[in-house]
Amino acid sequence: AKLHEFSMYLNKNWYKLTAKVGTYDDNDPIGVLDVTILSNLILDELLDIKDLRTSNRIEFIGGIRGLGELSKRVDNGDMEVAFALYAVSMDQLINIADTGNIMPPKTTWFEPKLRSGLVIHSLED
Question: Which residues 6+ apart lie within 8 Å of 31 measured at CB?
Fold first, then answer.
């Protein structure tokens, strides 16, 4: 997979979906994210899922659980469809932070998880 390509699992098959140029804004640090494109064009417009934080019609599966977990959840009837997205790049993450924006919900997954308070980085010179 690559940027602006989505994997969709439905009816025991994986499909590749590609966002058309012009359906997203390359100059908007949030709008260019795959999660925003998926949210705006598919989840909101087609599936009527308006709020990723509060909708009980969507569930997030963490990065390390993989595609097998997604297909399993659909195959056993827990979910109707699953989507897998290309990972947010470090450049995208830094660009969003540098422009004062906030990442959309569930867009970052870091492994291994560091213990709270284990690592401290001074932001002062």
Answer: 24, 25, 37
Q: Which helix (H) or strand (E) holds 96?
A: helix 90-98
121 in a structural domain: no
Those residues with Cβ within 8 angstroms of residue 15's Cβ, 6 or more apart along the chain or in another chain = 7, 8, 9
The tens digit of pLDDT for each residue in 61-120 reads 877 778 999 999 999 999 999 999 888 888 998 999 999 998 887 777 666 666 665 556
pLDDT in tens, 99-114: 999 888 777 766 666 6
Tokens read off for 55: 């909708």
How high is the mean pLDDT of the chain? 87
Handedness of CA 60, 48, 26, 18 (dihedral sign): positive
Residue 91 lies in a domain: yes
Domain assignment of residue 123, yes or no: no
Token representation of residue 12: 């025991």
Find the domain containing 19 and state its range.
5-98
Q: How many domains does the chain have?
A: 1
The reported pTM is 0.79
